[in-house]
Structure formats: C-alpha cells, structure tokens
Input
Amino acid sequence: MLAISCLCKKAALEVALSAEANGKDIELSFCHCTSCRHSTGLLFTSYLPIKEPHASQIDGLSRHTSEDGWTRLFCPNCGCHVLRVQTGEGEESTWEVATGVIEKATEDDEKAFEAIKVAGNINVGDTVDGGASVWLPPKNDPQAWRMDPPTPCPEVDSSSPGDAPADTLPASCACGKVDLYITRPNPDSYLASSGWPDLTHAYHSISEPERGNPEDIKWWIRDNGNKYLAGTCACRSCRLVSGFEIQTWTFVPRTNIHFRVPGPAGNGASDGRTTVALDFKTLPRGILQSYESSPGVLREFCPGCGATVFWHDKWRPNIIDVSVGLLRAREGARADGWLDWWTERVSFAEDAEVGRVGPPAQRAVELVSRLQTGLGLWTQ
Output
C-alpha cells in the first residue's frame, strides 16, 4: 500500500497502485491543462493510477468536478488535493492519486515504483506560452523541449469571469468563487517591508540578520517597477497543502490585489459584482478558507474547488504570495508580461524529500533536480 496524507492529516489513508502495471511501465506525466491549473492553483500537476479506495476512507473529502470530466477530491481543512476520479463508459471509474501526498510505499509498491517512467509534458497547448513545461525537459534529452514548441489552444480561456479594468492581471479558480485581479506596481507597492525569501537567499546559507533584509530592499518589485518576482517552491508544507511537488508563487503587495465579489455592480462591473481591496477581515465569507500551516503562517484556498490561492504571515502582512496557476494572462500561463521568474534556485530544494522515504523521496529529489536544470536552460 501507499501511505498518503495531506498536511493537517485529515486526509491520511492508504491506497494501492493500480494493477494495470502488470508487465508494463506506469507512465507519469506532467499535466499543464487549464482545468488542472485553475483547480489546484499550480502550473502543473501529476497523478498515478490507483485501485479504487473504500468509500469510508474518502467520505470526509470535498469534491469538485471540472470541465475536463475529472472529479477532484481535496481536504476541506487544509485544501490539499488528494485524489481524482473519472467515470467512463460502462460506469467504470478511473482513480488516481496526487503524487505530492505519497509519503512511503510497502515493499510490493516500491517495486512498482521502479516501473514508473516519466512520459513528459501533456496538454501544453492550453498554456499558450508553454507554461512550466519549458522548465521540465525530458530526462535523457534536456534540450528536447526546444524542438517541440507549444501550440496555442483556441479553447483556452485567458480572461477572468466578468469585467476587469484595463492593464490588470485577472485570476480565478476553476469554480469561480475566487475572482480577483492584480494591478501594476505603484508607489504604494514600495511601502511594505520584508525579509528575504528562501527563493533568493537560501536560509541554510545566510545568517538570521542577513535574512531580515536590513537594507530594506524591495525585492518583490522587478523590471524597473513593471513586474513582480515569481518562483518555484519545493517545501514540505507547500507540497502537502497543494498535493503536488512544485508550487509556483508570485509576490504581490496586498494593496495591488483586488477581489470581485457578489454584490451591486460598481467600479465598472456589469455582472452583479463589485470590486473590493483585499482585506482578510472584511472579505465576504465563503470566498476563501484559511488554514494555519504553522504558527503565524496562513494559507488560503477556495472551499469550492480546493485551489491554492495565498500564503502570508504575521511578520510581512502586506506582501502576499499568490498562486500562479490562478492567473489568466493573455500571453500565457507564466504571465511573463507581469512576472519576472527567478531561475537561480528552487525555494527549499533541500526539503524535497522531507517527510518521505524510499522511492517516493527519490522521485521527488529527481523532479526538483530536473526542474533546477530546466530553469537554467530556459534562462540561457
């Protein structure tokens, strides 16, 4: 059996890899489709086939069925995506487990793990710009992605539901509860203060005073005040509140984040919504669900579809980590016109195997290593 768990342990259970592997390799693909991105808040997902779990094991999980036909099951407490199921012809169901929640495997499933082969990136066309696929080159040919450029998908929805002001970056989850937009950096964007993130200054290599950013550098503002910093993270907490190994964040001042909420039309809205500045105390109930992942650290997710939305803490309350998979930039999933991607380091890369043992841990380390290599090649 595979032991799986979310961060809060509410979705802790055992599942078994599917028997379909008999004599065949199990293919592991990185999916970049629109439904995966907006259902999870991440730029890509990965799942493995499993046998159907017993109903009693999953009774307490929340569910959301996306346009792609998959029903995703997530923890209602911390938001972690755990499983997904799709019912095909003849009422046969296909079950899969999110790879980030796998902690360890029994001896039999360890052998099955040896048969898992990374098949590559799928549904890249939905991203328009290639999304994170350009950072995930095939293992044996790190340059291969250059020979297969992404093809724009005409069905991609690159606009937020309803109206959003010009020159703003819309973002929304799969079910539409979370509907917001981001504005360009402005003078107020420089008023906040923050220590350095592990993304740019690895915590294990600098002193605590240095970590505090004593020169008060506004590191979240990039490109001469036109963009925000964005990057990747492999820490255990991000993995277990999303369900997947790699989280993608951008760092945005709270003053530049605006929600569109149900109510009288206003501020140019014409669809029965009004615009409000992000204030966690006054935001209407039911839009975000908060989870304290560690003392003083809060993570928000959509209670309707489980999409990861924010990370913030009490020490830097005015800089918010926004989950990039929610963004709907017209230029593509990476939102390169708005974000400056940090490619020198995967945040908390050293923690890739924390909380995991055996083959699951080895696979996680391999993925982070591949991502770091791909980031470097993309920069070149």
